[in-house]
């Protein structure tokens, strides 16, 4: 039995299994574990377990959720904008349309970061180096070529250097954790990642954030510059949310939505969002589904405009 009366006024979840399409240390992992810990801490869920099922830029986990319905009865998968890239690329066996959209919870701004020992102290310095020798500057990201991090990197650099951005060298890693390891090891010169993933590493002086894709500085972290204030029109937020297996019945879908309604209303959740520099993108059920459909059209236009197509690893 998945749902039980753990609280007096509404059903709560007795047990939840969270499927994470990437490795530890990435944005999906951070979001899943922050949500799970807050659900348990507020008493909204009895027990939360996690499974990092990596591979194929999230495709392995997606196929597992679609094809393994009986064993996934109490499972939600965390995902984000890359699941839309999969859909518009039209080269994968499964897309978000094969799942049951439950809720988009948070938005995480993109961040361009360098290692703490990098010679680049500002975005303008990195731009100057790119203009001088574009092929010598290696960009990294935790998604495949033609996927979200590549798109964000290309968008940022096209705003900065125009058509010269076509020479951008992007190196793909399967997950934000591996991408960050590559940056720290010197295998790439800069990295596109999530603001929430980068915050603590900057506070520990392990990396340096050159800019984030927000219009205004974060209230929680006002020392981090935006690209907008540096004169570059880059505005993007990556939603992250949860999907259930295919054909979930209305009773269980509504129970999940009620669960997230109560989570997002809790002070503990507001504290968690502020800690990671996240913003709310909360929408559920059919509203979430309509949002995904709109984003498909918008993202396809962006990819065509940039001349970017999904190429894998």
Describe the structure.
It is globular, with a radius of gyration of 19 Å. It has 313 residues and is α/β, with parallel strands linked by helices. The termini are far apart. It contains ten helices and eleven strands. Strands 1, 2, 3, 4, 5, 6, 7, 8, 9, 10 and 11 form an eleven-stranded mixed β-sheet that branches. The protein has helices at residues 27-41, 59-67, 82-89, 123-132, 148-161, 176-184, 195-203, 250-264, 267-276, 285-306, and strands at residues 3-4, 12-20, 45-52, 75-80, 100-115, 138-141, 169-172, 190-194, 207-212, 237-244, 279-284. Helices cover 39% and strands 24% of the residues.
**Counting H and I runs of at least 4 residues, what is the number of helices?**
10
Radius of gyration: 19 Å
Overall pLDDT, averaged? 92
The CATH topology name of the largest domain reads D-Maltodextrin-Binding Protein, domain 2
Principal-axes geometry comes out as globular
Please write out the topology.
Elements: E1 3-4, E2 12-20, H1 27-41, E3 45-52, H2 59-67, E4 75-80, H3 82-89, E5 100-115, H4 123-132, E6 138-141, H5 148-161, E7 169-172, H6 176-184, E8 190-194, H7 195-203, E9 207-212, E10 237-244, H8 250-264, H9 267-276, E11 279-284, H10 285-306
Parallel strand pairs: 2-3, 2-4, 6-7, 6-8
Antiparallel strand pairs: 1-2, 4-10, 5-8, 5-9, 5-10, 5-11
Helix pairs in contact: 3-10
In short:
The protein has helices at 27-41, 59-67, 82-89, 123-132, 148-161, 176-184, 195-203, 250-264, 267-276, 285-306, and strands at 3-4, 12-20, 45-52, 75-80, 100-115, 138-141, 169-172, 190-194, 207-212, 237-244, 279-284. It folds into two domains: 3-107 and 238-306, Bordetella uptake gene, domain 1 (D-Maltodextrin-Binding Protein, domain 2), CATH 3.40.190.150; 109-230, 3-Layer(aba) Sandwich (D-Maltodextrin-Binding Protein, domain 2), CATH 3.40.190. It is globular and about 60 Å long.
């Amino acid at each position: 039995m998945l749902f039980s009366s753990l609280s007096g006024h509404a059903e709560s979840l007795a047990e939840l299994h969270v499927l994470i399409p990437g490795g530890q240390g990435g944005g999906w992992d951070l979001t899943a574990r922050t949500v799970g810990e807050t659900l348990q801490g507020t008493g909204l869920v009895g027990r939360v377990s996690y499974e990092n099922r990596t591979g194929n830029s999230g495709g392995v986990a997606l196929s597992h959720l679609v094809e393994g319905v009986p064993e996934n009865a109490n499972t939600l998968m965390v995902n984000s904008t890359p699941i839309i890239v999969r859909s518009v690329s039209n080269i994968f066996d499964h897309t978000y349309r094969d799942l049951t959209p439950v809720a988009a919870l948070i938005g995480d701004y993109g961040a361009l970061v360098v290692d703490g020992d990098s010679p680049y102290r500002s975005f303008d310095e990195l731009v100057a180096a790119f203009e001088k020798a574009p092929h010598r500057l290696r960009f990294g990201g935790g998604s495949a070529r033609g996927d979200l991090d590549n798109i964000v990197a290309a968008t940022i650099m096209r705003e900065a250097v125009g058509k010269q951005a076509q020479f951008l060298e992007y190196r793909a890693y399967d997950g934000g954790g591996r991408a960050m390891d590559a940056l720290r090891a010197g295998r790439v010169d800069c990295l596109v990642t999530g603001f929430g993933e980068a915050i603590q590493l900057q506070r520990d002086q392990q990396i340096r954030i050159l800019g984030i894709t927000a219009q205004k500085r974060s209230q929680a972290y006002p020392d981090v510059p935006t690209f907008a204030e540096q004169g570059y029109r880059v505005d993007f937020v990556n939603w992250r949310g949860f999907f259930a297996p295919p054909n979930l019945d209305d009773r269980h879908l509504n129970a999940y939505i009620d669960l997230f309604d109560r989570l997002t209303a809790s002070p503990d959740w507001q504290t968690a969002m502020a800690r990671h520099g996240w913003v709310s993108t909360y929408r559920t059920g059919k509203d979430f589904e309509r949002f995904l459909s709109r984003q498909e059209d918008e993202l396809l236009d962006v990819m065509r405009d940039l001349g970017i197509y999904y190429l894998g690893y």
